[in-house]
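Narrative of activities, Objective 1.

The group set out to show that a structural description can be obtained from nothing but a protein's sequence at a throughput compatible with the screening campaign. Below is one input-output pair from the validation batch, recorded exactly as produced.
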Amino acid sequence: MKSLLIIDAGIFILAAVTAFLKGDPGFIIDIIGLTGLIFFAIAGVLSGSFVSGDRVRANYEDEYKELKEKNRLSKNLFYVGLFNIAISVLTYEFTLQ
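Output recorded for this entry:
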């Protein structure tokens, strides 16, 4: 989780610098919101939420030890994505309204 937060902080800094250089404060909303959606998509793929129940059950029996690690990573990615979306919405509310 710590490494994901460091990566996320780097994305925030990059988005802020890019928005400052571009002169468009709305650009930071686009970057942070897009990265939040990307984290959501990766979390969905790792958790197996985009496949049918038969496939999840088959994968569960084959990869039980790896499943714990994938679930932990999926949960952390989901929380980071949720944080990014929340920051994007709050930035929109306070800057563009």
